[in-house]
Amino acid sequence: MITDSTAAFFEELGRRGHEPLLGKVTGSVRFEVVDGERTERWLVTIDKGTILVSRGKGAPDCVLRADKACFDRIAAGELNAVAAVLRGELSVEGDLRLVVRVQRLFPGPPAGRADRRAAGYARRQS
Amino acid sequence: MSDGLVKILDGNTFVVSDARGDIEASRTDPTGLFSFDTRFLSRWVLTVNGERLNPLSVDDLQYFETRFFLVPGTGTVYIDAKLSVIRQRAVGNGFHEELTILNHADEPADLKIRLDAGCDFADLFEVKDALEKKGTYSSRVEDGKLILAYDRGAFSRATAISASEPARVDKNGLTFKVRIEPHGEWSTRLHVVTRQLGAGQAREEIEDPKASRLRMRRNLERWIDEAPRLECDWEPLKATYRRSLVDLAALRFSPLIAGGHSLPAAGLPWFMTMFGRDSIFTSLQALPFAPELAATTLRALGDLQGVRSDDFRDEDPGRILHEMRYGEMTAFEERPHSPYYGSVDATPLYVVLLDEYERWTGNRALVRELEVEARAALDWIDEYADLQGTGYIWYKRRNEKTGLENQCWKDSWDSISFRDGRLPGFPRATCELQGYAYDAKLRGARLARLVWKDTALANRLEKEAADLKRRFNVDFWVEDGEYFALALDPDGNKVDALASNNGHLLWSGIVDKSKAKALARHLLSPRLFSGWGVRTLAEGEARYNPIGYHVGTVWPFDNSFIAWGLRRYGFKEEAAVIAAGILDAAQFFAGRLPEAFGGYERAQTMYPVQYPTACSPQAWSTGTPLLLLRTMLGLEPHGEHLVVDPALPSAVGHLELLDIPGRWGRIDAFGRGRVDVERSGR
């Protein structure tokens, strides 16, 4: 199955509007996804949790850069972004604190996606 | 150093060598130059005319620099040497070494000076477990530098070695051929620089070693100047205090995300990284002395708070990390430390630290900045930690291969047991976790009301806390012993051994007032109190062993929180007895308390028997004398003021702690020792 999880990720991110996990975060990040000769760029601007995705140029606070294969796996939750940085597959430049907070946007592993809320939570909700 | 090894460090970059300054590491041998959990030099051997050198002395100048005095020849018989060799080494981005050779003879000396260099680029985890490498090694000479490299896919680590004097550089080292005139000297500067974390992060500035040393010395002086000054009749306490401040300076670690600010790492040198639990406990201990450590800890741990459900990392939304690592095995997800989340106390303690920080400093901006993280931590307690649906924090790892089995501070395999020695199954709910949860809810409620202006949340948290306290005092209370069970097992049975955890319960405030007296009695009883401190497990329990890691040894850090707990319930004299015991013990370790020492009766051994551990100093042992000063002086923020209510052991005499930083600016505290610890102790 061929899916473009990178494109799907940014499309979904653009629809997300406000992300409570980044409620106190303001800044901009450029994602550079290298696909052979071509480099696709997305600019993600965050204003106190409100997310705007564009193809704009601008001068971002940090830049994240990876091969498409690597980024597809991150966007699908198959590769942890911090591990990818340590591995040298995802390069980061600029405000590292912003990078760490922005990686909250990436999904977790598919296997761990089931509702892990504890039994007590279910009990109190019922 | 007791193991004959010499260690210097700056943050998570450190060098461990033998007394000659040489490094000859085997795969499992913990010597070398390490940075970001990777070894960047495993061989570094100096010879003069083919001969190894013999150490005369080692000067530990500062924690980041040292000097070796050597003479040629390795014989045990004293040789009338005509040459002296001095290696002065300081850690920077890698390390610098100033190599000087003095010729004492009336003849010129023709010398071939050789430095053999090599590297296995082992991950710290590999050094412990002796695993095979999957990447490729290379060695080349480039612009007069020796480059040692290791590559595995895009993962690339390298070491660049160069010298200020002309050298013949080959793939295995550097050779200098020199003639030193009679009574003359020759010297060169060697630079060993690490290259890591992708091209974007590669820093290879070679700072002038003198400027680098000066910068680090000034930094240390400023650190000590900014801490409160201690004046005291009892000289050993002054020495212990000074040692603690210097060691805490060495333990500072500046994560890449913290913009140059520092937090306390867990231990030197193997645990120079972020640990949720250790960084939080140490920041709490140091709050009255260096409050900025707490701010950095809160920010860095908040930035890396869990947001996903990830079984490999034992990650949940809102969970505070256990340990962060940067090496190859973490990078390739052969270990889960990117970061690993397998602890259950760090998350409630995160809220405790945030509140305590505000109480001391009045910095509400940070409380506002971290509102999302603090709320997520509070939610985690109820939504993800209550594995049994009983209203308590439980733990059971989901990563069964490389995750941690025991996710509380007593994390060894046999630490949680019944009186008869049986071990409970999983999940487990240890008692102190419930205390931390109670405290986190009450403190969270205070912050919600005061800073986040969320009365509904505050009311809910207070109601939950009251309910938790009521249930806990029934479900965990061991009737026939009059103390709290160490844990509940999966069936809700009380794991009924008597342990030091009861002291942490006092600290948290979860204990009913009517039960506190019985706990204080136990903590000071001969079964728990050795004369130096409170044992982790009481004498008489089946698994008690005075040199068992968490089943009988005395942990200074544990005792500092027990003393705080005793004060919280008004047991001033009992707290002073514990402080006196631990501070007495510190004298036997030149002011540097070890992680743990034997639980032997004080009268029996007369000195505290050190438990052998790899790390020294350990952060929360280093923080112990600081928290004990706070508990002895009875320092407690009250509104905009600092309340001082001293209860000092009589041996301390007069004590002044000057310029205590906080929301009041700077303030002085005075006290006089009046507690007769001999009488109060038993």
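qc> Confidence is low (pLDDT under 50) at residues 198-203 of chain B.
qc> done
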